[in-house]
Amino acid sequence: MIPYANITFNLGNWGLTRKLPPFAAVRAFEAAARLGSIKEASEELCLTASAVSHQIRALEEYLGTSVFRRSGNRVELTLTGRAYAGKLTTLLDAFEESTRSVKEAGRRPFRVHCTPGFAARWLVPRLNRLAFGDRVRVSVSNGAPSTDFTSNGADVVIQWADAPVLGVVTEPLMQSARYPVVSPSLIQSKELREPGDLCRMTLMHDETMDAWDEWFEAAGIDPPAFPRGPTFPNCELATTAAEQEQGVALAYDAVVRSTVESGALVRLFDAVTMPFVIYSVSYPSSRKNDQMIREFSDWIHSEAKAVGVEARTDLICEVASGRVSLLRTATRPENKPKLGARPED
């Protein structure tokens, strides 16, 4: 029978301190092994051949084994040296790439692709609060912005809605209901006192997602059989037309709230459409740990949360090989807004 023994381990800094060989020696050996020549390694490293040989011998002393077999002026990798060199080249390549990405992150532009309305009414007015806002390059699209990151030239796309896309991470950002807005001057001149008054007004229509019928239903009245008004390719142009006293637009609360607060537009009536996710932050799955993308995402989510328009009813997802993976659950509301109620109710 083996008696019990009291055994004490003094861990100290074990596992916390790396035991690494001199970096200059590692570089000299890796270059000579990769190039197959001490002379060429000396030229790449801007050292003398004698200095490279000295560094390699220092590495061999550290390792306690030979990495080169020498015969006169010729050198040849040993089996141990060949295996070690292969691992070092992989590590140094990764080290170089990581260093370059960190170095470039401090000066390269950050490209955001989004809709005109999101850029003009939401993103641009807030960019001065982003740490690297002066380096953001904004591009806009009349239709839904492309999420093909192989061709769209973007780091991040503010995607319309939240449909999953293969090879892309989709983070729901904003949800919103819609309500009618009009320029202040038209309210009195057209005597707009109740929802039914809109049936005789010129209505601005949105080609992307026109929802006037839904709003009239929420208001409890029949929509006009032949509604008057032009159709625009997106909600931003429709809203701009309303600002210019051309009629009434059905605007997204999350987008025009600040415009309404400024008095440039006036909200009409209490009825709203059913809220849904209108914008998401999207970026390539391969870059989900990119420092600038993470910082931009955290910032823009905090901006949406600060004004109470953050998306709270969906999941952040990633699509790879045709399968949807849920990365994390977004914050959910205790109560969803009701059809026909003000968003703040």
Report on the architecture of this protein.
The protein has 345 residues and is an alpha/beta fold. The chain folds into three domains: 23-105, Winged helix-like DNA-binding domain superfamily/Winged helix DNA-binding domain (Arc Repressor Mutant, subunit A), CATH 1.10.10.10; 110-176 and 276-329, 3-Layer(aba) Sandwich (D-Maltodextrin-Binding Protein, domain 2); 178-267, Periplasmic binding protein-like II (D-Maltodextrin-Binding Protein, domain 2, 3-Layer(aba) Sandwich). The protein has helices at 23-35, 38-45, 49-63, 79-105, 116-123, 184-189, 212-219, 235-243, 253-262, 291-306, and strands at residues 68-71, 74-77, 110-114, 136-140, 156-160, 168-176, 178-182, 203-206, 231-232, 248-252, 266-267, 276-284, 315-320, 323-329. The strands form three sheets. Strands 4-3-5-12-6-13-14 form a seven-stranded mixed sheet. The protein has a five-stranded mixed sheet with strand order 9-8-10-7-11. The termini are far apart. It comes from Roseovarius gaetbuli. This is Glycine cleavage system transcriptional activator. Residues 21-78 form the HTH lysR-type domain.
